[in-house]
Amino acid sequence: MPNYSYKALDQTGITETGVLIAENLSEAQEELKNRRLIPIKVREAKNRFNISLFRKISASKLSLITRQLSTLINGGIPVDQALDSVSKQIDSPLIKGKLSNISNKVKSGFKLSEALEDHPESFDRLYCSLVRAGESSGDLGMVLEKTADFLERKAKINQDIVGALVYPIILFSIAIVVIILLLSFVVPEVVSQFSSLNRDLPFITKSLLFLSSVFTSYIFYSVIFLIGMTGYLSIRAVGFDKFKRRLDKFFLVMPVLKNSLIDSDLSRFTNSLSILRSSNISIIKALEISADTISNSYLRQQIKSTSNKVAEGESLASSLDKIKAIPPLVSQMIENGERSGRLEEMLEKVSVYLENKFQSSTKITMNLLEPLIVVFLGLFVALIVLAFLLPLIQLNTLTIN
Q1: Left if phi > 0, otherwise alpha if psi is -120 to 50, otherwise beta: which for 313?
Q2: Percentage helix, strand, coil, to 5, in the chain?
Q3: Do residues 99 and 90 make contact, with C-beta atoms less than 8 angstroms apart?
Q4: pLDDT per residue over 329-340, tens digit each?
Q5: Is the dihedral of CA 27, 28, 29, 34 positive or negative?
Q6: What is each CA distance from 113 to 136, 197, 245, in whole angstroms?
Q7: Residue 208's CB: how many other CB atoms inside 10 A?
Q8: 273-287 pLDDT per residue, tens
Q9: Measured between alpha carbons, how far is 97 from 75 in angstroms, rounded to an integer?
Q10: Please, which residues have CB within 8 angstroms of residue 363's CB and are 6 or more apart in sequence?
Q11: In sequence order, which residues have a C-beta less than 8 Å from that of residue 79 and are 6 or more positions away?
């Protein structure tokens, strides 16, 4: 639905501006009247880039909204009133407009899940399915509470990943910039002073001079550009989705990276599958929906294929056990859950185990990575200093002789 920016007067005569979501201009004006506002100017807010990312509710905001909705609905407040109450506590005009639009649709007789489906950029398939399951079971508040727990854990995993990578990436980028600046400007100026000696320079000095000439050569950047263009055209020829699957498959065999990727993805997958099964959604549909939470496209495709095997009568544990990327312990725990009739509870335990394993392994890896980058930069600077000192030593020896 399009966004409409508005300028209106409230009952006290104070000017209010904001953004709301409506089917058309008439509906936008009607919405302002429902809010007891007098429209002055209402027009469609064009998104120049048309990128849904700027219209998406962040994971942290969505978990907070879901938590507030579950609390209000569990307290006996109707869904439309709960939406209005949460909307009043939101500062963002965009989110406020989305919630108001959803509330109006619920007041018109639509279910909450149907109203949420109008905003797929913020409420994905998993979220809408959980809400629909809560409506069918008559316990929407409890389902929203579990959904809020899931969103908070998902946001925490994402924050852990970003937080773990930010400092090493910044440190590595600074190291690369420092090295390039030294090779491009400092090394040529200093080492060129030794060319008048008419003597062979040490191997380290020659090597740094060669690297310096490479980094200051237009041919080097032309080769980089050609490699980049060749790679881009190759990806276009193969297809982005197919290339991404191949790249994701390669990530799953990398010694250090694969464990973190698998643990984070499977933690989200098992957690969402547990919630869906607890909401009485069929195992086939739950598998298809939960697979969408997996970021690795190759692993996601493999897990989605298990729904066909489960539909043919194969157990979930045995079908997942055939996927090489899934640890045997995960399959064994799921098998125990199926045998004992407590699959949902066991899936939850698997999710917690994988999340804790991911956090500990990520922390250890990052603690090792940071000093390695510092040592790498220190060694390179030491080589540059050595490249300066060796010719000076030669010059000093020549003078003494």
Answers
A1: left
A2: 75, 5, 20
A3: yes
A4: 888 999 999 888
A5: positive
A6: 11, 81, 32
A7: 24
A8: 888 888 788 888 888
A9: 24
A10: 164
A11: 73, 106, 112, 140
Confidence at residue 290, expressed as pLDDT on a 0 to 100 scale: 86
- In this structure, are residues 22 and 101 in contact, taking their beta carbons and an 8 Å threshold? yes
Q: Is there a shared CATH topology between the 55-150 domain and the 151-401 domain?
A: yes
Helical segments of 279-342, H only: 283-291, 297-311, 316-321, 328-340
- Average confidence (pLDDT) over 85-110: 84
Q: Please, what CATH class does the domain formed by 55-150 belong to?
A: mainly alpha
Looking at 3.30.450.40, 1.20.81.30, 3.40.50.2300, 3.30.230.10, the CATH number of the domain 151-401 comes to 1.20.81.30
- Residues 170, 171, 174, 179: is their CA dihedral positive or negative? negative
State the Cα angle at 393 between 388 and 398, rounded to 5°. Answer: 130
pLDDT bucket at 1, cuts 50 / 70 / 90? low
pLDDT range class, residue 238, cuts 50, 70, 90:
confident
| Range in 49-63, 226-240, 369-383 with the lowest mean pLDDT | 49-63
Please report, for the chain, the start and end positions of each structural domain, with discontinuous segments joined by +. Answer: 3-46, 55-150, 151-401
What pLDDT, on the 0 to 100 scale, is given for residue 3? 67
Long-range CB pairs of 394-400 (<8 Å, 24+ gap) are 394/197, 394/199, 394/202, 395/194, 395/197, 398/197, 398/199
Residue 48, Cβ density class (10 Å: 0-12 exposed, 13-18 middle, ≥19 buried) = exposed
Q: Would the pTM count as exceeding 0.85?
A: no
- Contact residues for 380 (Cβ-Cβ < 8 A; gap 6+): 175, 179
Identify any residues that bridge with 8 across adjacent strands, giving them in sequence order. 16, 39
CA-wise closest residue to 294 among 330, 311, 270, 323: 270
- Percentage of the chain beyond pLDDT 90 is 5
Q: What is the pLDDT of residue 49?
A: 39
Neighbours of 245 (CB within 10 A): 17
At residue 346 the predicted structure's pLDDT band, cuts being 50, 70 and 90, is very high
